[in-house]
Amino acid sequence: MTDPAAKVTAVQALWRRAPNLPLDCQVALTPPERPGRPLQPALVHPQQVPRRSPFTAEGHAALIHSIAHIEFNAINLALDAVWRFAALPPDYYRDWLRVALEEATHFTLLRTHLQQEDHDYGDFVAHDGLWTMCEATCHDVTARMALVPRTLEARGLDATPIIQAKLRKVGTPRALAAVAILDTILQEEVGHVAIGNHWYHWLCQREGYDSDLFYAQAARQHGAPRLKPPFNLDARKRAGFSDTEIQTLARLT
């Protein structure tokens, strides 16, 4: 399914039907090579994504587009977590399906905002960093939980308040409308990272891993980005990061 609106509708329909659908946690499914997505936006290296000022109309649209692209990818990431990995508890699949639903809502909010600015999803180039890590961890659910929700998506908890501060400085009605959208997204993303934290520690306990050592090993193996301040320590704590992890991050700020 390549049309973004159709994907959103399908996720919403699946969520409504989920309570009445049989769930066989043991079934191993054959994955497609890539998830369905539109031909646009064109995907380039992260360093080739132009930087634009949010103080201009074009720059504002480009900023919102970049966040919308993250949220569209996040729909696919959550769905991939549902069907790729077998033999997990039923709540695991329900959790990630709910995440997919909320990511679809986030994408729709941002796309609608773009359309109100005479733009649409696909009008600007984007990069594929989130999906690259998804592919790297496709054979290891513990590494997936470590490096996608706990690392890449947790970076969104740190970045969102910074983006909001810039938009408040712009101060236009469209900028403040975007701040309100990001408030909704931030609160729900805390829950998404918390789900990742919960299942990461559950899996480490099941496999007999030391969670700190496994995370460090997986980060090195798969080239996870270094964590850089400033950190949203309050959001990270609410998302389930341990006091030790929070204290370690606090020393980096």
Quick structural summary:
The chain has helices at 4-17, 57-84, 90-116, 129-136, 141-170, 173-207, 211-222, 233-238, 243-250. With 253 residues, the protein is mostly helical.
Model description:
With 253 residues, the protein is mostly helical. Helix content is 66%, strand content 0%. It contains nine helices and no strands. It has helices at residues 4-17, 57-84, 90-116, 129-136, 141-170, 173-207, 211-222, 233-238, 243-250. The longest helix has 35 residues, at 173-207. The chain is globular and about 50 Å long. The mean pLDDT is 94.
In terms of topology, how is this protein built?
Elements lengths: L3 H14 L39 H28 L5 H27 L12 H8 L4 H30 L2 H35 L3 H12 L10 H6 L4 H8 L3
What distinguishing features does this structure have?
about 65% helix; mainly alpha; about 0% strand
